[in-house]
Design a protein that fits this description.
The protein is α/β, with parallel strands linked by helices and about 300 residues long. The chain has eleven helices and 14 strands. It is about 35% helix and about 30% strand.
Length: about 300
């Protein structure tokens, strides 16, 4: 049985009168690769920074391997890779100086792997970091995070500045790392197709809480748009949390399955006395549906 790496209980974080994290409970298990979705300003960066101990919660607890950040052994902190939205590298340093400097803080630093990544992604040792492109700076941060051979990898929109070729190269590297070392990963993104390529779980941060958190394969097997004539069990159907808003147009009812079903969809329809037209949807359509669920 897999063990939780991250356990969050009743977390609250506000900026003045704006509550960004609101009594959030969440658990991420060892070996999971979690894609974190949410609208702009939903609080994804705040949540990831809080996990990293960079922001202090107003209330609640975050534990990594059963420890709060101030209790976490240094040996565990050194096995956490983190890529922020904006580059944290020293812009006046050359790439070689930076990687040599950073490596001193991580006993597990894999110099040969670092060199391989720099060469593969065409980042020269002699380049001054401040003169790198936005994408190169982001990839240098990724190199730093991967070269420590992390047990936990936190990525805050790590591919925002990358072209499609570099995005795929990065995603392949994450997959290889997870397969080889069983690394647990959380990465926030707006690119749903990237999430589909590597994640085994998907989470949606909405109104300060993780409102949706599912195994990706189970979710993709269930999500669909439904259209049917009115059912005698519409009142019961409205209470089913696996569907989104019910919309009625004359004798026709439309809705969308947004959560994994515990039974085949035909049995689910039979339970509600529905003779439905079923249209499977992709993950991006699903996200648009749940993102606007309460609009």
């Amino acid at each position: 049985m897999t063990q939780p790496i991250i356990t969050i209980e009743k977390a609250i974080k506000s900026y003045k009168s704006l509550r960004v994290i609101d009594k959030l409970n969440w658990q991420v298990n060892e070996g999971d690769i979690v894609g974190l979705l949410g609208k702009n300003a939903a609080g994804k960066s705040t949540l990831l920074e809080s996990i990293m101990g960079l922001r202090q919660l107003d209330q609640g607890t975050i534990k990594l391997w059963g420890y709060e950040w101030h209790e976490l052994p240094q040996s565990k902190k050194q096995k956490i890779g983190y890529v922020a939205q904006t580059s944290s590298a020293f812009e006046w340093m050359k790439v070689a100086q930076y990687t040599d400097y950073i490596s001193q803080f991580f006993p597990s630093w894999d110099k040969a792997y670092c060199e391989t990544l720099l060469k593969r992604w065409r980042i020269s040792h002699d380049q001054v970091i401040g003169k790198l492109s936005g994408g190169q700076k982001q990839m240098l941060d990724v190199v730093q995070a991967l070269s420590i051979r992390p047990e936990l990898l936190i990525l805050d929109e790590p591919v925002a500045h990358l072209d499609p070729h570099m995005r795929r190269a990065f995603l392949k590297e994450v997959i290889d790392l997870c397969c080889e070392h069983g690394t647990t990963v959380i990465f926030s993104t707006h690119i749903v197709s990237d999430l589909e390529r590597i994640a085994n779980r998907v989470a949606v941060l909405q109104f300060g809480v993780i409102r949706h958190y599912y195994e990706l394969d189970a979710l993709k097997a269930s999500i669909a748009k439904l259209s049917f004539t009115n059912t005698s069990k519409v009142n019961l159907l409205e209470k089913d949390t696996s569907i989104s808003r019910i919309q009625q147009f004359g004798d026709t009812t439309n809705t969308c399955i947004i959560a994994p079903l515990k039974k085949p969809i035909d049995e689910w329809c039979a339970f509600y006395d529905i003779d439905a037209t079923i249209q499977p949807i992709n993950l991006e359509d699903w996200y648009l549906e749940v993102a606007n669920e309460f609009v």
